[in-house]
Amino acid sequence: MSPRAAWRLESLGFGEVYDYVAGKLDWMAAGRRTEGTNAARPRAGDVSRKDVPTAGLAERLGDVRERVRAAGWDAVVVINSERVVLGFLRSKELDKDPDLKMEQAMRPGPSTFRPHVAIQEMADYMTNHMLDSSPITTSDGRLVGLLLQKDAVRIAGEEK
Amino acid sequence: MPTEIDRHQVQQLLDRGAQLVEVLPEDEYEEDHLPGAISLPLRRLETEAVRMLDRARPVIVYCWDTA
């Protein structure tokens, strides 16, 4: 739709016309602010826990496990220096051999969700698929936070 | 020929005073739109673009995605 609009504007005499082809979806998936009636409604990115523990590929699992559990968590997201999500460990993976490197113990390429998804949609999906938690990332793969099913269900319930 | 741009270039052009135009139907604009965007659905472009937009300034159009 936007390419047709851009071409038509040029034909109407507008000299400097740009087409943001990736559009609103790209903007919202990057976690950028919007305006409108939906803007104030909670979304996955708003509700996700920003204090989720993170670790690097080369760290020793036993060291990470100790740090993560001491902080009251049972999950950790593996990221690189750009905060791009590379892997995820829940309780089961955290209990593996402590001498493994994170890259050997992690679940690689975890399913992630974009920050703009409505919290009601996330609550339904996570409940139906028995997902206790899920990383929320921008469209370029950077970690926003970890969404817990219990948080999504609670906030969705408050919205109704 | 219109120039295709990405998210970062949108911000740069807005800083230069570009006009940001959502060409989706108005109800979609009402729900969510980029900050500062105006609504000019494709069907109304013919009749209202010249009245609503400044030809002397850059114009950025967008819809939902590449579709």
Identify the notable features of this structure and list them briefly.
heterodimer, A: 160 residues, alpha+beta, CBS-domain, elongated, B: 67 residues, alpha/beta, Oxidized Rhodanese, domain 1, three-stranded parallel beta sheet, 4 strands
Walk me through what this model shows.
The complex is a heterodimer of chains A (160) and B (67). Chain A has helices at 2-11, 23-29, 44-47, 61-70, 91-94, 102-105, 119-128, 149-159, and strands at residues 17-20, 54-55, 76-79, 85-89, 107-108, 133-137, 143-148. By secondary structure, chain A is α+β, with helices and mostly antiparallel strands. In chain A, the strands form two sheets. Chain A has a four-stranded mixed sheet with strand order 2-3-4-5. The longest helix of chain A has 11 residues, at 149-159. Chain A is elongated. The model of chain A has no long low-confidence stretch (mean pLDDT 94). A three-stranded parallel sheet of chain B has the order 3-2-4, with helices on one face. Chain B is globular and about 25 Å long. With 67 residues, chain B is α/β, with parallel strands linked by helices. Chain B has helices at 7-15, 26-31, 42-52, and strands spanning 3-5, 19-22, 38-39, 59-62. The interface between A and B is large, with 36 and 42 residues.
